[in-house]
Amino acid sequence: MAPLNDPEFGFCRDCLTAQASAGRRCQQCGSPRLLRHPELYRLSIAHVDCDAFYASVEKRDNPELRNKPVIIGGGKRGVVSTACYVARIHGVKSAMPMFKALEACPHAVVISPNMEKYVRVGREIRQMMRDLTPQVEPLSIDEAFLDLSGTQRLHHDPPVRVMAQFSNRVEKEMGLSVSVGLSYCKFLAKIASDFDKPRGFSVIGEAETPRFLSDKPVTMIWGVGKVFAATLERDGIRTIGQLQTMELGALMAAYGTMGQRLYQLSRGIDTRRVEPDGESKSVSAETTFNEDIGTLEELVPILRSLSEKVSRRLKAADIAGRTVVLKLKSRDFKLKTRNRQLADPTQLADRIFRTGLALLEKEIDGTRFRLIGIGVSDLSDDGRADPLDLVDVQATKRAVAETAIDKLRGKFGNNAVETGYTFGKIRQRTRPVPDEID
């Protein structure tokens, strides 16, 4: 049997058996999912991305959907939050307008997002990550970086085998699959996790990086979006290999601080550390309307409902926010954001709503909107949140009433109690967009 640390032969991702030869299938279980790489046992930065997460959770919870195309989203004016791989074969993509998605895949099953469930499942998977290392940096509900440097003594295994065990554990215990990228830095680990999805596990080593990147498009570099890519295209730069031939001074002269990033990342230089303290900076919820609306009568019930969603998320996470942020998108897709800082952090729906309402009233000028969102930023723990207001007695009474409502909803469900702002007013008007934790 080959020694555990022999990268020439590697090991099987399914049964973890070390391989004694360069065969195509595992000598123990026959699986073709073998991992081999010259730097296999020296790399320790991982990026984990759950595969088609929202859709996969729904398929797991409803086996009848297993072989069907599933789209998470909804409403004729909405967009696709995510789509399963069956739907993607038909051309459905995230952020695609729903009507286009249904044109591409008319037989798809469309499911409205259930963010509370997805967050709950995401937290369970994240805890599994933290069982491996405290160095976990969440990027979203379903993806994170891990730094497993120095954990071999703890796990009695190199990071690559630890991550293979983690992948298998998620499948066995959660009924979901993840894709893993492993490298020596965050930039390349994230690139690697996109290969061979779903259930992928890809490795990019340091020695191969310049050659690996040379023929890749510049859009693979973190921070190069469509607009900046068009600028580079006008300058005749299409591939990362072209950037590798350019001097730092020339790139910075042409593109400022972004030029330094282009120089470094094109050469695989990424000194960013995995930051476990990269906590949420904001919590928000938003809704796209089925038809454009623009009056307070129409918008207030929706604003109240969204404020309650944000409040539930804050209370569940034991955090509060000091700045309330209102988001509006007009029919021509122009985005407005307005914010107001509070004297104290809050997690109360009533306070979020009333602050948001004051901001909204200033924007009512006949403009019709296709989206509204409300959220809070400047997050902290809830220890200093919502002190009793000795001046505004009514605010204190509303806070007490909200606590009573929360208890009823906790016992009987979120729809057990509705306020007069929302009762019977918004069910057919909106399509919820997944709540954001940024």
Notable traits:
438 residues; alpha+beta; Alpha-Beta Plaits; DNA polymerase, domain 1; 4 domains; 5-stranded mixed β-sheet; 5-stranded antiparallel β-sheet; 21% strand; globular; disordered C terminus; cytoplasm; DNA damage; magnesium
How would you describe what is shown here?
The chain is α+β, with helices and mostly antiparallel strands and 438 residues long. It folds into 4 domains: 1-36, no CATH class; 38-207, Alpha-Beta Plaits, CATH 3.30.70.270; 212-266, DNA polymerase, domain 1 (Orthogonal Bundle), CATH 1.10.150; 282-437, 2-Layer Sandwich (Dna Ligase, domain 1). The protein is 36% helix and 21% strand. The strands form 4 sheets. A 5-stranded mixed beta sheet has the order 7-8-3-9-10. The protein has a 5-stranded antiparallel beta sheet with strand order 13-12-14-11-15, with helices on one face. Strand 12 and strand 13 (335-346) form a beta hairpin. Helix 11 crosses helix 12 (257-266) and helix 13 (296-317) runs antiparallel to helix 14. Residues 427-438 have low confidence and may be disordered. It is found in: Cytoplasm. Residues 45-225 form the UmuC domain. Its main location: cytoplasm. Monomer.
